[in-house]
Design goal:
Membrane topology (chains A, B, C, D): Multi-pass membrane protein
Distance between the termini of chain A: 35 Å
Mean pLDDT of chain A: 87
Subcellular location (chains A, B, C, D): Membrane
Strand content of chain A: under 5%
Keywords (chains A, B, C, D): Ion channel, Ion transport, Membrane, Potassium, Potassium channel, Potassium transport, Transmembrane, Transmembrane helix, Transport
Protein name (chains A, B, C, D): DUF1211 domain-containing protein
Oligomer: homotetramer
Largest interface: A-B, 51 and 42 residues
Structural class of chain A: mainly alpha
Organism (chains A, B, C, D): Acidiphilium iwatense
Number of domains of chain A: 1
Radius of gyration of chain A: 22 Å
């Protein structure tokens, strides 16, 4: 994929193992995003309406699946937003290292897990005895990637460890506040779900809609070009 | 994947966040197309014919799955055609922006959803009480990507927002007519399914066959090369 | 992914719609190969051994799944071989066109379908009443990609339509014979399965082992370099 | 993906069929890694808690799935580590050949198989009668990729067959010891599982944690630059 530098005797010399291009990590992450987002539909099972004498039993079953459509739609949008934002922040990273790769893997773990709470919410949103559990579990499922994302961001930006040296401090700080705020809001959504499922899920939907807005433009320090 | 421009001090400077190369969007979309098209087979379950004393019970079960094969074949072809056409139109786009990325995500949502109505049609096409519902649901499943596709196309081409400036107006207009016509025909197929399942599905098959024809050649305005 | 040529005013000019680079088709096909080969395991379900008082009921269930392991192994190897051979022949193609793309899609359809006969064979190989049906169905599942592969090859090489002009005729002819022979052998395996399941599947295994041998080196005509 | 060399008459000349760039093998392997790692979640099924009069039956069901979460987490980490290490060693390979491709395919087979023992362990870890079988089967599932990995490594490095000629012998030897040791430890874990499930799985967890440490830096022989 990426061309390797060549030594004088015509053989590739790999770069040092600990400082690598971000391209491969992005490609792998893109693969996981694309698979997770497409797998979501497998959790919606074709309803059983055979053998019923009523002529429109399937229609009722299909419309009765609306909680599954709702959770499918919300999780699809969430993963799509994370995909876009993943590239957005990786463009700020000048390189990657072993720890960032592990933190990214941890983040992908929480993304890959999402189809399970999504299916759980779809199955139990209309079940009076279990809807609180299902909605809280789903909100936790959204909280987890927000936490691992923040972790990844804090690691990369602390002391400008892996980010471009000329990025504006205020710009980085702005994103840190945004990502920490996202964690706080999902934490609030988890707690709200325990009190009122509709309120808690409403916060999740609202935050997702906010994230559909275009991200902030990259801000680089000017005037530093001449040393 | 794509090489980044480098500043004078040797670090990558990412492009502005709102105007980006189409390469990454195409790669992600290709991933979703490839996964959705391959997942379709998971919706066809191995039939249960164990314990039957009849020697060819499995043969009957396998041939009895023909509605599933039919819907599998049609959806596979549809996704394959969208994959080819996706690249066809993205080659006309000189860049992408936040809104196009969102519209593309919306289009991919409707593609990823397709395995579900496909499985529903396969399960209920022979069920007299539910075949109308199943076929109409499937036709809606085909209508949705046609709509989101048209939306994406209209956004990109209105006022030549994102397309190559030297493309022939007549060529763009021709494609707009074609994509709007596709939406109209699928809308007709949905309505036809309510009246006669075979007619409605026949329109879907016919339109798919039409789309197997080679797409129109790109038409660029000539003589404008010298300003 | 692939860099586009640029016009004088700095905008991309896409190539003609009908003559395209093979890179994108190969990347998409690779995606389908990778997904189909990895999905195969989903067709092996965890056996039910709960509630049994016997201490090793799960061990018996797991070893009793050997027909599933066998069909999994054979299909995995088949898809892997097709993946390698797909690149092998696409390196001979100097370009692709609309018809080849459609034939390639048809070939991918038969590859994507493979998990279904694989699971059917795994489920019914030990079922005396249905093993003939299951094995024949599986052999047909292997015959189909061999047929679509031959079709793709014949289209590309007839009159050297899409292949490199300096390839040796004898080399192309050798491959045509090989691919046609493969179709003939799988056809024989289908018929043999009807008579004796073990013989028919034995032919499938034998042919797969043969295909593990390295492919023939590309042979180009020499001496034509100077015009 | 990779640019092909061009002959004087402007057509691509593919390289010899037996000596190829490693890029495509890595891309295909990445695809399989990404799919296998994301498919794991499909093996955790939404629990059935409907119709229960108890208000928190779902909560109990979800927490009762902890063996599934445990095996999911462990397998996810394992595949992630293999993904990172796969690139780590393929950067040392200057080229690939038919045999290495086959050995790599064999390795990918054992990776693709992993979701099945993972699901088996998740289902039976709390089943007193079957936990020994399930844990041993899972340990075998981890042993298999370790074995095929070692095979691939030994083939590529024996007589420096495919690795960079200036790599330090001590460095290659160090990795050989490490990979052989990994096989030995997993073999031990399999045997331990037969005696005590917790001990055997504990060894698996411990080894995984060790592999989270950064890999050794590449060591090239110096002073050989001038011939």
């Amino acid at each position: 994929m990426n061309s390797k530098p060549r030594s004088e005797d015509g053989h590739d010399i790999p770069p040092a193992a600990t400082e690598r291009d971000t391209g491969r990590v992005e490609a792998f992450s893109d693969g996981v995003f694309a698979i997770a987002i497409t797998l979501l539909i497998l959790e919606i099972k074709v309803p059983h309406a055979h053998g019923s004498s009523r002529p429109f039993s399937l229609l009722g079953s299909l419309t009765g699946l609306w909680p599954s459509y709702f959770s499918y739609l919300l999780s699809f949008t969430m993963i799509g937003i994370y995909w876009a934002n993943h590239h957005y922040i990786f463009k700020l990273f000048t390189r990657t290292n072993h720890t960032l790769n592990l933190l990214n893997l941890l983040f992908l773990l929480t993304i890959s897990f999402l189809p399970f709470p999504t299916a759980t919410l779809g199955n139990y949103m209309l079940d009076a005895a279990n809807r609180t559990t299902a909605a809280t579990f789903y909100a936790v499922g959204l909280l987890l990637p927000a936490c691992t994302w923040l972790l990844m961001w804090l690691y990369a930006t602390t002391g400008r460890r892996l980010v471009h040296p000329r990025l504006e401090s205020a710009f980085l700080h702005h994103l840190t506040i945004q990502y920490a705020g996202t964690v706080a809001i999902y934490l609030g959504a988890v707690l709200l779900c325990l009190v009122d499922v509709r309120l808690g899920l409403g916060v999740c939907v609202g935050l997702t809609l906010l994230y559909l807005l275009p991200p902030a433009s990259y801000a680089y320090a000017r005037g530093k070009r001449t040393p």
